[in-house]
Each structure stands twice: as structure tokens, then as C-alpha cells.
Amino acid sequence: GAGVSQTPSNKVTEKGKYVELRCDPISGHTALYWYRQSLGQGPEFLIYFQGTGAADDSGLPNDRFFAVRPEGSVSTLKIQRTERGDSAVYLCASSQNPGLQETQYFGPGTRLLVL
Amino acid sequence: DQQVKQNSPSLSVQEGRISILNCDYTNSMFDYFLWYKKYPAEGPTFLISISSIKDKNEDGRFTVFLNKSAKHLSLHIVPSQPGDSAVYFCAATRGSSNTGKLIFGQGTTLQVKP
């Protein structure tokens, strides 16, 4: 079956602009995660959705970052007033259920470059 | 504060030999550990995991060892193959968090030479 897909695959924007990054999880997966990977680092947790609700948003760096999952499937990560430091690969992952031993399946990521 | 650390940025081994990738963690509340493999331009893919109630888990050529007292785990690949060349991430999580949120190390780039 189809894996996790993310669009766009690449996004170049200018400092101060607004961007939206989309994630389509594996069908039927209730848990959805966003991570951010900066150059030379491992993925860093941003936010976790269980169904439609954000159950843990402790990784969002500041209030410029916001994410939604209105119907419990597709999720959008929104970044306002982008800064050069936001440049990174944004990864989305989904798992069938939340919890300790559920495998998270990752999408290929969106490479965001803020000029 | 880096709770999961992979101190070797890169490792090069000859095909057929053993690859050993290391990972250290600081948070004693972590009770489940995973290894992910990542090829360029792709997302990480799950490789193998281990619960803190075990000290070893094996899956084919891949074995993960956990030393809780040292807060250390390692991934052994035997025999190494050129297709194993990738970035390997160690990750940890806490059962009590009930979310499955993963804390990743910085990654180790493995190169297996033919």
C-alpha cells in the first residue's frame, strides 16, 4: 500500500513569508507526528496528533509554528513569518496506534529553505 | 540537552565484516529503543528495536544490545553489505509518555566498501 507522502518535496521561500507543508499519512493510521531535521542532526520532535487533536505539541519551537489535522487524516504544518533558522527537512510520520511499540513510518520529508 | 548521543559521525567497514554502531542516552526513564536507517532523499525506515526488559534483540543480520547500567546500546550488522551504506539513527522513547514521541541521536553515516 501507499506510504506516507509529503508535499511539496522542496520549498524555497523568503524570510518573513508564510508556508504550509502537507502530510498524507498511511490510510487508517490514527497517530501522526511531525519532526524537524536540521543539517547534521537527527530528527527533532515537533508535535503529535491522536486523531484530530494535538495530544503533544511540546516540541513546537515558538508560536510561529502551528499544525492541524481537521479530519484525522491529512495534516498541515504552518509556519508564519519564516526565519532563516527554520530551514530544515520537515518529516512526517504515522503509526497505526499511538504508543510505545508502534512502528512509526516516515515520509520522505519536505526540504524547506528560507532565504 | 542532547538526551540521545551518537558520538561517531561516521564509520567505514569492509564488506563482509562486522559494523558496530554505538549510542548513549542520559534519561533513565527511557524504556524502549529503536534504530532507524536513512538513505539520501528518503525518510527514516525502522530497522530494529529493543525493550528495556531485554538486553539483546536479533533480526537476521542485525542485533541490538542494551546495557542499561551504562545507558548504552549498540547495533551490530553481520555481515555488512554495500547496501547497508546509509545514515543510522538511534532513538529512544518513554512508555509513560503514552505518545510514542521519539528522541533521536545525531546519526552515524555507515559506509560499507565492496
Q: How does this model look, in words?
A:
The complex is a heterodimer of chains A (115) and B (114). Chain A is mainly beta. Chain A has one domain: Immunoglobulin-like, CATH 2.60.40. In chain A, 0% of the residues lie in helices and 48% in strands. Chain A is built from no helices and 11 strands. The mean pLDDT of chain A is 94. In chain B, strands 2, 4, 5, 9, 10 and 11 form a 6-stranded mixed sheet that branches. The mean pLDDT of chain B is 94. Chain B has 114 residues and is an all-beta fold. In chain B, β7 (62-67) and β8 form a beta hairpin. Chain B is built from no helices and 11 strands. Chain B has one domain (4-113): Immunoglobulin-like, CATH 2.60.40. The A-B interface holds A 4, 31, 33, 35, 40-45, 48, 50, 55-56, 59, 91, 93, 95, 98-109 and B 4, 6, 9, 31-32, 36, 41-46, 49, 51, 89, 91, 93, 95, 97-107.
Provide a concise account of the structure shown.
The complex is a heterodimer of chains A (115) and B (114). With 115 residues, chain A is mainly β.
Stated plainly, the CATH topology of chain B is called: Immunoglobulin-like
CATH class of chain A: Mainly Beta
Question: How many domains make up the 3D coordinates of chain A?
Answer: 1
Structural category of chain A: mainly beta
Helix content of chain B: under 10%
Strand content of chain A: over 45%
* Highest CATH level, the class of chain B: Mainly Beta
**Overall body shape of chain A:** globular
Q: What is the CATH topology descriptor of chain A? A: Immunoglobulin-like
**Low confidence ranges of chain A:** none
| First-to-last CA distance of chain B | 38 Å
The major beta sheet of chain B can be summarized as:
6 strands, mixed
